[in-house]
Design a protein that fits this description.
Layout (H helix, E strand, L loop, with lengths): L6 H6 L7 H11 L13 H5 L6 H28 L1 H4 L9 H4 L4 H20 L3 H19 L7 H21 L5 H26 L3 H4 L8 H24 L1 H7 L8 H17 L6 H4 L4 H18 L6
């Protein structure tokens, strides 16, 4: 009896070898430009230091943002190289270019290496402290890709550390002292998003969880729901404490920054809704970027915070 031909065999067949244009498109998908929005955390220090309209500071912050985008692209490529076998067993991730065979492994290795070299060289132009943070960020992500992502809870902690390093990098690149509240809120929010992603993956994977991500075998829905409740509560509390801090109110010349907490609470609730009600999405953190209500909540928070922080008033 003739054996059925698998998708992997079809992709590898010379007759259906991907065109050069499709491979270049696959390279762009591999570095995930749509995920680079996470690097806006690099800009957080200049926003809350009221330096957003300083051309010099903004230029350096934009360079720092670009460095983290290139490093993120390298890390995504490395992750897809390491996860290609597990991704082929995932109903959605099997379409990733490396897992599907659209981007050859040789291209993937060259892509990640070149992005690392360019980004780390660029980071040195922004100062030694920033370069050290960028190097630590890259090293931590390599460690995550090959070891820590297999350890439950430690994997999410590692992801959260990456967001904190982004904020630190933005501060070093622009020579801005970073508030302890900003670091705390960043860490807690990142933990919340990370646990939400694991909760979503656990629901979507069901019995095939361990095959798709090793750490999922050690997670439980109850444990993740508790982690989400704790980190969501801690994030809101830390944000409220920041807005009510006497130094914060004096620096921004406003007693009303706490009002923006409403958008934080709405954003947390909307993210939880996405996590628990859209199991077919590849990732809740990706899905929220296409979710109208969530985007509206974020834009509302941004407009209100900028209006209060920069004392914007109609002329």
């Amino acid at each position: 009896m003739k054996q059925p031909v698998s998708n992997a065999d079809v992709v590898a067949s010379p007759e259906v070898r991907p065109s050069m244009l499709r491979r270049f498109a696959g390279v762009m998908r591999t570095v995930r430009p749509h995920q680079w929005v996470k690097n806006v955390f690099v800009l957080a220090p200049i926003v809350f230091a009221k330096e957003m309209f300083s051309p010099f500071v903004l230029t350096r912050a934009a360079s720092a943002f670009a460095v983290f985008c290139l490093l993120a692209g390298a890390v995504y490529a490395m992750n897809d190289i390491a996860d290609r076998d597990a991704d082929r067993r995932h109903p959605v991730k099997c379409r990733r270019p490396i897992a599907a065979g659209v981007v050859p492994l040789s291209w993937a290795y060259a892509l990640s290496a070149s992005l690392v070299v360019v980004s780390l060289a660029w980071s040195l132009a922004l100062g030694l402290s920033f370069a050290v943070v960028a190097l630590v960020y890259f090293g931590q992500n390599v460690w995550y890709s090959f070891k820590l992502k297999h350890v439950a809870y430690l994997d999410v902690t590692c992801i959260a550390a990456g967001f904190v390093l982004r904020v630190m990098g933005g501060g070093y690149a622009t020579d801005i002292q970073i508030s302890k509240y900003l670091l705390a809120c960043t860490a807690l929010l990142a933990l919340f998003l990370g646990f939400g992603k694991r909760r979503h993956e656990l629901t979507a994977a069901e019995a095939n969880a361990a095959a798709q991500r090793a750490s999922l075998e050690s997670y439980t829905r109850r444990g993740l729901d508790l982690a989400l409740l704790l980190t969501a509560s801690a994030t809101v509390i830390a944000y409220v404490a920041y807005t009510l801090d006497s130094h914060t109110r004096a620096f921004f010349h406003s007693d009303y920054l706490w009002v923006s907490t409403l958008f934080v609470v709405l954003g947390v609730q909307r993210f939880l809704y996405i996590v628990k009600n859209r199991p077919q999405a590849e990732s809740p953190t990706q899905e929220m970027l296409h979710d109208g209500p969530f985007v509206g909540i974020v834009l509302g928070w941004v407009v209100l915070v900028l209006w209060l922080v920069y004392n914007l008033r109609p002329s």
